[in-house]
Design goal:
This protein is α/β, with parallel strands linked by helices. It folds into two domains: about 170 residues, Rossmann fold (3-Layer(aba) Sandwich); about 190 residues, Dehydroquinate synthase-like - alpha domain (Dehydroquinate synthase-like, alpha domain). It is about 45% helix and about 15% strand. The chain has a seven-stranded mixed beta sheet, sandwiched between helices. A two-stranded antiparallel ribbon has the order 7-8. β1 and β2 form a beta hairpin. α9 packs across α12. The structure holds nicotinamide-adenine-dinucleotide and zinc ion. Nicotinamide-adenine-dinucleotide (NAD) binds next to α4, α5 and β8. The site of zinc ion (ZN) has 5 residues, from α10.
């Protein structure tokens, strides 16, 4: 078992990564001493993994309250959050109750927000079961739900007291979801650590084959990078921006295509290719390094070409992004591999970029991915 510490003073917590961890009684005994444990999951993950966790907790004498939510981003709403509160109240859960979030980023965000707000805040443990949740959403303490007028518009920072990552859960993850998680892994290398990027290049075949030891190392590497960035900037006032590499374009693609048409990681993948090309055009990244990023994305069977929006559409979509400062979109660009920096980009530059890359597909199509060697 590999342990990565997230250093946040009194809110510090460990991330445990390894195989066959879900049912480890010794782990639960140590990290879930609470008499009552509410296990929040969804109707896809529950039949796969809930029993292992619940049996382990019950064997330790804990009272378990299972809360099974409907699966899907469209359920990341106030109404679903209310189902969690209803169950906690019905079962007389108090401030000593522990919430365990078992599932992908949607479950983690809802359960985490419930933990942040139920009786003014109760402890919670993240047990992420998608690659995206393991390397990204379960680390950093952002929790929340969507509002009809925008994604993640209602939320809170609430750090978990531990994160348990069982890489075995990735065996059942659909290929497309797995690839989408890899996009965030690539992002950590491209924007934060050249060394990690080079390591990913060398281990890519094993990573695509979901080989356990390499998966454990890759997830630990990504968590270490995210933990470092988050430790330096818990509330996203400064350096945390580097984690948005590929995301200004990515969010525009997600919005422009209509949520759900492209997975977040797919949109970010095409966004990273654009941001790398832009860095080349601005003279801060070697063409060869942009090619390496593109090649890795392609090998993961992620899209490298954006949809063919016209310039005004791009501009409008990007100005809507919540990270835009006073309407002018800012981009995370690369000063060499592994070093992201933040910069506004003049409209002419963007026009030249979109003219150079061209469009890949029409609005009504899903992302076209190359035929890589992904397993
Ligand atoms: N809090 C943060 O910092 C942060 C960061 C990034 C993303 N997010 C949020 O995370 C969400 C996306 O997370 P996601 O990509 O994990 O999506 P998701 O939670 O919707 O999971 C994707 C699909 O995989 C299923 N699934 C989960 N684990 C599985 C497994 N082991 N085997 C088979 N199927 C499994 C889910 O039920 C779902 O159908 C978005 O709502 C996004 O806003 C939050
Ligand atoms: Zn992302």
């Amino acid at each position: 078992m590999t342990v990565v510490d997230v250093d946040l003073g009194s809110r510090s917590y460990p991330i445990f990564i390894g195989s066959d961890l879900l049912g480890r009684a010794d782990w639960w005994e140590r990290h879930a001493p609470n008499a009552t444990v509410a296990v929040v999951t969804n109707d896809t993950v529950a039949p796969l993994y809930a029993e292992r966790v619940i049996v382990a907790l019950q064997a330790l004498g804990r009272r378990v309250v299972p809360i099974v939510l409907p699966d899907g981003e469209e359920h990341k709403t106030w109404q679903t959050l209310n189902l969690v509160y209803d169950a906690l109240l019905r079962e007389h859960c108090d401030r000593q109750t522990l919430i365990v979030a078992l599932g992908g980023g949607v479950v983690g965000d809802i359960a985490g927000f419930a933990a942040a707000t139920y009786q003014r805040g109760i402890p919670f443990i993240q047990v992420p079961t998608t690659l995206l949740a393991q390397v990204d959403s379960s680390v950093g303490g952002k929790t929340g739900i969507n509002h009809p007028s925008g994604k993640n518009m209602i939320g809170a920072f609430h750090q978990p007291q531990a994160v348990l990552i069982d890489v075995e859960t990735l065996a059942s993850l659909p290929d497309r979801e797995y690839a989408a998680g890899l996009a965030e892994v690539i992002k950590h290398g491209a924007a934060c650590s050249a060394e990690y990027f080079v390591w990913l290049e060398s281990e890519l075949p094993a990573l695509l084959a979901r080989e356990r030891t390499v998966l454990t190392e890759a997830i630990a590497g990504s968590c270490r990078i995210k933990a470092q960035v988050v430790s330096a900037d818990e509330r996203e006032a400064g350096r945390r921006f580097v984690l948005n590499f590929g995301h200004t374009f990515g969010h525009a693609i997600e919005t422009g295509m209509g949520y759900g048409a492209w997975l977040h990681g797919e949109a970010v993948a095409a966004g990273m290719v654009l941001a790398a090309e832009l860095s080349v055009a601005l003279g801060t990244l070697e063409q060869g390094d942009a090619k390496r990023i593109r090649r890795m994305i392609e090998s993961c069977r992620l899209p490298v070409a954006p949809p063919d929006f016209d310039l005004d559409t791009w501009q409008e979509l990007m100005e809507r992004d919540k990270k835009a400062s006073q309407g002018a979109p800012r981009f995370v660009l690369l000063r060499g591999l592994g070093e992201g920096y933040l910069s506004p980009v003049p409209r002419e530059r963007l026009a030249a970029l979109f003219a150079a890359v061209g469009g890949a597909q029409r609005r009504d199509q899903s992302p076209r991915v190359s035929s890589g060697t992904a397993g």
